[in-house]
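Severity: low
Component: inverse-folding endpoint
Summary: output formatting inconsistent between runs
Steps to reproduce: submit the following structure tokens with default settings.
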């Protein structure tokens, strides 16, 4: 892009051809369809093969309409309760903002259409090149919600979906039955004002590890609450999860300084679709200059062996070593989520989480486990 920031409309118009080409590239891949299991109940091997080949998979129609409606209602409530600006104690209507009693701030607010991380040393400097920041329309708000955290504490529907049996079975298939959680966040891309996420690879810990492989930094699910389009979706470069640490500025320079990389594809979804994306994939999202809303409930998982004995990274202020006690305390959220889901969907077969097998009665969802396990659980995230 040129040095002069384009307007929102100019940026949208200039991106049209790239978006069309990306859609065509995505359609040529063989990595989307229903979430299928084999005769033993494990994730179907064809899905695993496609995931490891491309570094991502699009699972279609995993979450039904009723549950999507519950998730939307909880997310809308959380968005409406956000501080009106960073550091404020009130929301846009002057009411007390949500989450003021959380140990960790549950909102990231940004200027409309901005890139808060690109070209900075934030998050261990993993976003080395800044995205184009279009000039928003004159009626844009001063700040917009970019990310929301602590979903299992703030959103009952999100805690329940965290215990979804098909998603947890997928986590076990990718990371092993002793898989452990990473973190969760909700990406908010409001129409015409949503910010961008610069090109990056998520992991920071294991690039130089002697046993590094394509799964060393885990993966993330994203549950889509609205249709995603090429203008507001996550974009990935297929196969880059196997490439090691990538020189991102060199890639962009080789593309004439344009962040619209020619081999990237958008993750196009309908409400209820869920993507699984390897955290080592080169990925980004552009400023949402479109008229379409995107809400992506994002939560990730690791291999136990990738986490045990490691030190906190990324945005974790706590740099403590991840020992068995720390991992167990954070993993207990999965056990409570499974029971919260069982109570809400009693006819559904629950997932049996190996690290807490035969301890289910200790982690029944209720006021006591909410306080002991769920309250401020995100201060114990396992970031590598």
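Observed output (run 2 of 3):
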């Amino acid at each position: 892009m040129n040095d002069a920031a384009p307007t929102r409309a100019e940026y949208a118009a200039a991106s049209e051809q790239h978006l069309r080409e990306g859609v065509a590239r995505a359609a040529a891949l063989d990595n989307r369809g229903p979430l299928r299991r084999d005769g033993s109940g494990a994730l179907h091997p064809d899905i695993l093969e496609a995931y490891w080949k491309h570094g991502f998979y699009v699972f279609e129609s995993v979450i039904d309409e009723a549950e999507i409606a519950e998730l939307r209602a909880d997310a809308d409530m959380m968005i409406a309760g956000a501080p009106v600006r960073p550091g404020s104690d009130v929301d846009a209507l002057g009411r007390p903002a949500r989450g003021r009693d959380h140990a960790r701030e549950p909102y990231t607010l940004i200027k409309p259409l901005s890139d808060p991380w690109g070209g900075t040393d934030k998050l261990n400097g993993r976003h080395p090149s800044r995205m184009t920041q279009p000039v928003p329309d004159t009626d844009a708000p001063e700040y917009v919600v970019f990310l929301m955290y602590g979903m299992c504490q703030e959103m009952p529907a999100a805690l329940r979906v965290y215990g979804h049996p098909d998603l947890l079975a997928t986590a076990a298939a990718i990371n092993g039955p002793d898989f452990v959680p990473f973190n969760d966040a909700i990406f908010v891309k409001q129409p015409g004002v949503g910010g961008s996420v610069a090109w990056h690879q998520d992991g920071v810990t294991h690039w130089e590890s002697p046993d590094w492989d394509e799964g060393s930094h885990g993966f993330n699910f994203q549950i889509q609450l609205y249709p995603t389009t090429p203008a507001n979706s996550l974009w990935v470069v297929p196969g880059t999860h196997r490439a090691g640490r990538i020189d991102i500025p060199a890639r962009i320079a080789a593309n004439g300084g344009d962040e619209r990389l020619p081999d990237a594809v958008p993750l196009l979804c309908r409400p209820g679709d869920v993507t699984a994306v390897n955290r080592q994939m080169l990925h980004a999202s552009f400023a949402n200059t479109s008229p379409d809303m995107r809400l992506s409930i994002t939560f990730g998982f690791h291999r136990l062996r990738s986490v045990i004995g490691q030190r906190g990274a990324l945005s974790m202020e706590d740099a403590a070593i991840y020992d068995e006690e720390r991992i167990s305390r954070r993993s207990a959220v999965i056990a409570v989520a499974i029971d919260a889901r069982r109570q809400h969907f009693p006819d559904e077969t629950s997932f049996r989480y190996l690290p807490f097998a035969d301890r289910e009665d200790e982690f029944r969802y209720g006021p006591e486990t909410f306080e002991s396990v769920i309250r401020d659980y995100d201060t114990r995230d396992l970031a590598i």
